[in-house]
Design a protein that fits this description.
This protein is α+β, with helices and mostly antiparallel strands. It contains five helices and eight strands, in the order H-E-E-E-H-E-E-H-H-H-E-E-E. Helices cover about 30% and strands about 35% of the residues. Helix 4 crosses helix 5. It is elongated. The protein binds flavin mononucleotide. Flavin mononucleotide binds next to strand 2, strand 3 and helix 2. Its cofactor is FMN.
Length: about 200
């Protein structure tokens, strides 16, 4: 399975959507899993996997998390991130860099409401990125919450919601034998994109 190669006149977002659809169609596990890299204000980087949850109406890449987590703290101080997708079934990777903003509460509400109930309870119960005494206590808290909430909808906690990454740089990487890979870069320049090829 192959993908369309980037060209100067293509819109990188449209190309990303095409490649993502191809990754989904390739049947690989979790094509929506992406590495999210953030950094402290002093430049210390950290990376973790999160799930790409589609585009917002402005064409920004969404993910959802805990607003008290390590990543959220780093984004509060330094609201830029890098994203990385690796789709081995296509032998391509996509790098994205950009400014990060929190999604409006209504968008986070809508996504939270669509999640499986156990994930909702887990989001409420888990103080993400903070030390806990023991794992069983966390499971007990989920059970207690489930009991307390009963059949009612689980309300979205204030400290859980979405972010949107507004790309200002894209790199589309196409792997080939003999490490002669192709690298296509789009850098935002005002309303347009500067296009470059990079050596592998
Ligand atoms: C495949 C995969 C998908 C994940 N998706 C998310 C996600 O969408 N949101 C999230 O908060 N954590 C997700 N996690 C957990 C994060 O990698 C990470 O452990 C957590 O967000 C805490 O990161 P932090 O302490 O750097 O903030 C995922 C982990 C894996 C392996």
């Amino acid at each position: 399975m192959s993908v369309r190669k980037p060209e100067p006149d293509l819109q990188p977002l449209a190309l990303f959507q095409e490649w993502f659809a191809a990754a989904v169609a390739s049947g690989m596990a979790m094509p929506e899993a992406m590495t999210l890299a953030t950094a402290t204000a002093s430049g210390r980087p950290s990376a973790r996997m999160v799930l790409f949850k589609g585009l917002d109406p402005a064409g920004r890449l969404r993910f959802f998390t805990n607003y008290d987590s390590r990543k959220a703290g780093e984004l509060d101080d330094n609201p830029r991130a890098a994203l990385l997708f690796w789709w081995p079934t296509l032998y391509v990777q996509v790098r994205v860099e950009g400014r990060v903003v929190r999604l409006p509460a209504a968008e986070s509400d809508a996504y939270f409401a669509s999640r499986p109930r156990l994930s909702q309870l887990g989001a409420v119960a888990s103080p993400q990125s903070r030390p806990i005494m023991d794992f069983q206590q966390l499971l007990d808290r989920v059970s207690t919450l489930a009991h307390e909430i009963g059949d009612h909808p689980v309300p979205r906690p204030d400290n859980w919601g979405g972010y949107a990454v507004e790309p200002d740089a894209w790199e589309f990487w196409v792997g080939h034998d003999g490490r002669l890979h192709e690298r296509f870069v789009y850098i935002r320049e005002g309303a347009t994109w500067a296009f470059k090829l990079l050596a592998p």
